[in-house]
Specification:
The complex is a heterodimer. Chain A is mostly helical. In chain A, helix 11 crosses helix 12. Chain B folds into two domains: 42 residues, no CATH class; 344 residues, Beta-lactamase, CATH 3.40.710.10. Chain B has 19 helices and 21 strands. The longest helix of chain B has 26 residues. The chains are: A mainly alpha, B alpha+beta.
């Protein structure tokens, strides 16, 4: 790897970040096709069984462009406009209620053209991370105070999560909330305050459970009070996989047994078609990504914004991956969450790849710093 | 690395361990078996493939029951468009009753040539099946029976031989999608075709006998009638016809009672044809000789205040003449002399009162009055064939014993069962027992020949061939009064020919004729007609062989 002192020309790609992502993307293209062709065929799309394959490949391509753009965006720019970016995202969340369109019973999407729509919640999640990273970098010294160190970032997080929650999209809302709290925890907010948020969360969840019937249904089935069709099907698929799986393309669950096999339940298809080996490799790739991201955050410890950002972005990807797998395995209540890089899906894929772009950039910064320190040590 | 980051890293790590251990449990331990079993039950369906039913032929290989390829049509609910239009265009008549299930039986017996066209239509499920065709259904209906819509035998031979005929259905294990399409076949067990049945029936004789019977029953305005033709040497049944009868599909719309196989299911009082039992005992035991004289008095005798009459007054005569002219008075007197026990035993020896072993469902045993309840009048009546119930096959077998030198046989209906890979041939003949001695059978044949030559059976006489036979006219019990009716009779004639080496035995029974009231006048002519036709056919065959 080339290295010069000049910041502008020194770019490097962290192998342990880019390799897992590219492997997951490739696996995703194959598995999206495998799990969607029958459904696409039955639906009678123009492209027949290839409908989702081609659409997904296109989104991956766009996502890689987003990765490149994110990599080259100066971090100073993000730092400078973090607040404004998040405000735009919140505005878009409001817009959903006016011009959004519904799917599966919730208004979550905004359409730009007839074939392209996106979820503002994905943007909001992304900008919230940037905003909080910047916020804590700016107010590092007052982090132990209640107002600057807890109330304001908590309000920002809560507002974002609440706007998503009333779409309604509780799982995304919960994840955004968890993400915000985790960044606050990482940045060094007093543990005492964070326990307070735990209380808020508990009240919020209880309210959801009381007020919203489908949340109640999901939780009940999670607690084993009623049979859950989707989890049953996912379990059958996983169990069918055994050690080496049925072979790619040869699974049975996707023949309309398992709902959303190419998005919310794709990990079940992974486990069915590639078996324990494939499923644990996918898990391992996410683990590698998480550890590498956390390491990057640790290396950048003396640069709070970069460190917070690296941590937030890594955790965003990791939390989604863990939640998706947990849902598929029935460890968490059933909800629709995509598996990052693997599931079919536009906005999530786009912003996850953008996050990877930023992570790569941050990792290369970290590497530079490491080298500098090394040189400094050597020069002593 | 700060402690806060470490905690989060541990959290991520533990979550990963939780996921991995769950994967491990489901995929690599016994715990997953429950889910795999559940999966098999939804992914894999077992579809039965019907076996083709065996076909039925007569002794010469001419078809009696054949399979015609046909199609059964199901509709898959909510996937079919314009059902009525499709059916109208193809000219298929829809079945009336439609259930509520998802896959509905739409039509059956659809012509085979429409298959390709029907398979192209979305929402239709086309299954191949077979329809049954009976080329001479009317003549053999009561014997052969038929199959129902599901292809199982409902009556007659089709029912009684259901097991070999039906074969063994095969099965297909199919991989299924959740929208009821099939992906691939995992395992196929081919269906085993049913065995072909070759009956002892001769379809020529069957048709001929049926036509003759039909004409005779209509002529005499009788209620019903049947004809059994068999080979007395080996018990093969060559023809068994009942009238009334109906062609196959129409029979389904008529009550079963109207076309059942009366020859085996409905026992009747035989009348004088049964006198051979009495004379067999008398001769076997040496109680009388044919030339012993007997006084038939003024044509009647009173037993326990019941008057037993003769049709013609005969006065003093011999036992031979008494049988030739079927004297009831002589029979009653002889019966009283022989006594109940010996009569009863001989009846049992000749196969009355128990099933003959014919392989047909619903055979009646007939009825013999238990010995303990015999009074003199019962004995007298028994001698002349009243107060006893027999079925047509029992009667034919008893006469066969006289014809074949005393052997009571088991009737034979099946000549060959062709299982495809192996052929089963039943024994040539099955002897139940030697029931009569040679001398007695010779004597009886001699007297029975005389019956046809100059006695009551003269209407059955055929020039140039010796026919042995006996007429029967039995009074019927009126079901309302439970007494013997004055005008309702069962007339019959049973005989065999040629008398010295019989090849054919014919039992003709005509029930409740309105025109004519004696076996000699109602049944004997029919016997003669059938016998003549048999002989004519034999002659033609012989001539054909010579050429």
């Amino acid at each position: 790897m080339r290295f010069t002192d000049s910041e502008r020309t020194s770019y490097s790609f962290d192998f342990w970040i880019i390799a897992p992502v590219l492997l997951l993307l490739m696996a995703g293209i194959v598995l999206v096709f495998s799990s969607s062709f029958y459904w696409a065929q039955r639906k009678g799309f123009n492209l027949g069984p290839y409908h989702y394959l081609i659409a997904h490949a296109l989104r991956v391509a766009i996502g890689l462009v987003a990765l490149a753009i994110a990599y080259f965006i100066p971090l100073k720019f993000l730092k400078r406009f973090s607040g404004q970016l998040h405000l735009v995202a919140l505005a878009l969340l409001f817009m959903v209620f006016i011009i959004g369109h519904a799917s599966h019973g919730a208004k979550r999407w905004i359409s730009l053209a007839s074939s392209f729509s996106f979820q503002p919640s994905e943007i909001a999640k992304f900008t919230l991370i940037i905003y909080l990273s910047e916020y804590f970098a700016r107010w590092m010294r007052k982090i132990k105070e209640f107002k600057k160190g807890f109330a304001i970032p908590f309000a920002a997080t809560g507002l974002t999560a609440a706007l998503v929650a009333i779409q309604p999209d509780f799982s995304t809302s919960l994840l955004i909330f968890a993400l915000g709290i985790s960044i606050m925890f990482y940045a060094g907010v007093k543990i005492r305050y964070l326990f307070l948020t735990g209380l808020v969360l508990a009240i919020f969840s209880a309210g959801m459970y009381m007020k919203v019937p489908h949340v109640r249904k999901r939780v009940k089935s999670y607690l084993g009070e009623r049979e859950n069709y989707q989890v049953t099907q996912a379990r059958i698929g996983i169990a069918e996989g055994k050690l080496i799986g049925s072979g790619i393309g040869r699974g049975k669950e996707k023949f309309l047994y398992l709902p959303f096999p190419h998005t919310d339940f794709i990990y079940a298809v992974v486990a069915e078609e590639t078996g324990f080996i494939g499923a644990s490799i996918v898990l391992l790739l996410f683990m590698v990504l998480a550890l590498r991201g956390f390491r990057t955050a640790a290396l950048l410890a003396d640069e709070p914004f970069s460190s917070n950002l690296a941590f937030g972005l890594t955790l965003m990807i990791t939390l989604y991956a863990l939640a998706h797998m947990g849902v598929v395995l029935g460890l968490l209540p059933t909800t629709g969450l995509p598996l990052p890089f693997v599931s079919y899906g536009g906005s999530a894929l786009l912003f996850n790849l953008a996050a990877v772009g930023l992570l790569l950039r941050l990792s290369s910064e970290a590497k530079k710093r490491e080298t500098k320190i090394l040189r400094w040590k050597l020069s002593l | 690395m700060t402690w806060r980051l470490r905690i989060l890293r541990i959290f991520v790590f533990l979550s990963g361990v939780a996921i991995l251990s769950n994967l491990f449990m489901l995929q690599l331990t016994k715990k997953g078996e429950r889910w795999r079993r559940l999966g098999r039950s939804q992914f894999i369906v077992k579809v039965k493939t019907p076996a083709e039913r065996g076909e039925i032929f007569d002794r010469n290989g001419r078809p009696l029951a054949l399979n015609l390829p046909a199609i059964v049509l199901y509709q898959i609910k909510d996937r079919i468009k314009d059902r009525k239009g499709i059916l109208r265009r193809l000219g298929i008549r829809r079945r009336r009753k439609l259930g509520r299930r998802k896959a509905l039986l739409l039509a059956d017996g659809v012509p085979f040539n429409l298959e390709d066209e029907l398979r192209k239509i979305e929402g239709l499920y086309v299954r191949r099946s077979w329809g049954r065709d009976y080329p001479i259904s009317e003549a053999v209906l009561s014997l052969l029976g038929f199959t129902g819509r599901d292809g199982h035998g409902l009556e007659g031979i089709e029912y009684s031989f259901e097991d070999p005929l039906s074969g063994k259905p095969g099965s297909e294990l199919l991989l299924r999608t959740n929208d009821r399409s099939y992906l691939s076949m995992l395992k196929e067990t081919p269906a085993l075709r049913g065995a072909d049945l070759y009956l002892t029936i001769d379809s020529d004789l069957e048709e001929m006998a049926y036509e003759a019977l039909k004409r005779r029953v209509i002529e005499t305005e009788a209620r019903s009638g049947f004809v059994i033709i068999m080979n007395p040497q080996n018990g093969e049944i060559l023809a068994l016809a009942n009238y009334p009868s109906y062609p196959y599909p129409d029979a389904l719309r008529v009550p079963h009672d109207r076309w059942k196989n009366r020859a085996i299911t409905d026992p009747y009082e035989p009348g004088s044809t049964f006198k051979i039992v009495l004379y067999s005992v008398a001769y076997e035991e040496g109680i009388i000789t044919p030339e012993d004289s007997v006084d038939t008095e003024d044509g009647f005798v009173v037993v326990q205040r019941h008057r037993i009459r003769d049709v013609h007054k005969m006065g003093k005569t011999t036992y031979r003449e008494a049988l030739v002219h079927s004297s009831n008075v002589a029979a009653a007197k002889l019966a009283l002399e022989v006594g109940p026990r010996r009569l009863y035993e001989m009846a049992r020896r000749l196969g009355f009162g128990c099933k003959t072993g014919i392989n047909l469902y619903g055979e009646s045993t007939g009825r013999l009055r238990p010995l303990s309840r015999w009074k003199p009048i019962n004995t007298a009546n028994f001698g002349m064939g009243q107060g006893i119930l027999v079925n047509g096959i029992q009667m034919a077998l008893a006469y066969s014993a006289i014809a074949n030198g005393g052997y009571l046989l088991t009737p034979k209906l099946v000549k060959r069962v062709d299982f495809g890979n192996k052929i089963y041939i039943p024994p040539q003949r099955i002897v139940v027992r030697k029931a009569l001695s040679d001398t007695v059978t010779k004597l009886l044949t001699d007297i029975l020949t005389e019956v046809v030559d100059s006695g009551t059976g003269i209407a059955a006489k055929i020039e140039g061939i010796k026919v042995a036979g006996k007429t029967g006219t039995a009074q019927k019990v009126d079901p309302q009064t439970h007494r013997y009716s004055r005008d309702k009779v069962t007339t019959s004639f049973i005989g065999y020919f040629p008398a010295d080496n019989p090849r054919y035995l014919i039992n003709v029974v005509i029930d409740e004729p309105q025109k004519g009231r004696f076996g000699g006048s109602v049944a004997a002519p029919l016997f003669r007609e059938i016998a003549l036709k048999i002989l004519a056919r034999e002659y033609i065959e012989l001539a054909g062989l010579r050429n």
